[in-house]
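Forwarding these from the shared drive since the link keeps breaking.
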Amino acid sequence: MTIDKLDTGVPHPARRYNYWLGGKDNFAADRESGDLLAESYPAARIAARANRAFLQRAVGFLAGETGVRQFLDIGTGLPTADNTHQVAQRIAPESRIVYVDNDPMVMVHARALLTSTPEGETRYLEADLRNPQQILESLEILDLSQPVALILVAVAHFLPDHPHSVGLVRTLVDALPSGSYLTMTMATTDLLTPELKASWDESLRSGRSDVHPRTRTEFAQFFEGLDFVTPGIAPISEWRPDPTAEEHPTPVEASLFGAVARKP
């Protein structure tokens, strides 16, 4: 895909996320969208940082404790500090990572992602979660006879149809061998105050938000047939928290569920 397909007038979740994280790779439409969402969910920037911290802890666990050496990170977004390949290869230099995103701007910045240790390998694939078969057919550097860590961090909640989104994830998980892992985070209003929940619901009805939160029960449906890693489903800030971290958001501030589960 070439840069002329980049529509700077339409906000994109990857660039909005970049804005919330304090990055510079975003446009006015992304900033406007981010500010509108922050009106209904004031802790949006805190949640973005907490989500990023969860990703780093989860990848550290997968590379360090499970022995997984292959990672498929879908909806990766724009590169920031400590991306999946950096965390994994710091622990296991031979790790192989495939990043997937559907934003042309991420492609522009792919060189920042396409770095690797000499022992490992990193690739970028421009594709969409809504087409899992295309993704599965383009994983040349991953050996699907060996365990793969599938990472879907803050991406599936952009799909409004819950049963359809569960089916898309199931297609990916079914293609992976025993010993693989599913890592996900997803927005929820279960953890919010009634006032904040009402505000979020209104932002969806008015079209200001494109994030479709799920209940704990709905989130659990993505993991059916898998074995949860302790502590199971938890608010992202409470999933194996780092006591040395500078920031310790509350579940209200970081209103996403997170979990890691193994395919038996």
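-- next protein --
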Amino acid sequence: MRKYVFLTMIAVIAAMPSFATAQTKKGSNGGPVVKSQGHPIEFVRKGLDIVFYVGDDDGSPLSTKDMRGRATVQDSGKTVTVPLNPASPNMMTGKLQAELTPKAVVVFSASLHGHSLTARYTAE
């Protein structure tokens, strides 16, 4: 039951137009940046590795040491959840099972000290 509730929440978030228009800026690592509650989050993929660089409200790196997160990937009609692990200084990293196709949707979800962050990206 929880799985279906989570997937429904992701589908609703993905359909929200405010997320779709937020992905216009490129970050210092070359990936698209989306702001979530004032926090810039940059998405970078290197082969099967995905990395999210998380910034603080002022744009400085935010420590992800105690952060918990996951990426939900909707690609070619399939939905996969990728667990993310904190990495110094401000990264959340995960490993895909297969390369992303163009137009795949990646939704970042994380929490830190009761503070939730969500960002939506479309693969190029």
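The beta strands are 25-26, 32-36, 39-46, 49-54, 68-75, 78-87, 91-95, 105-112, 115-122. The longest helix spans residues 2-15.

- D.
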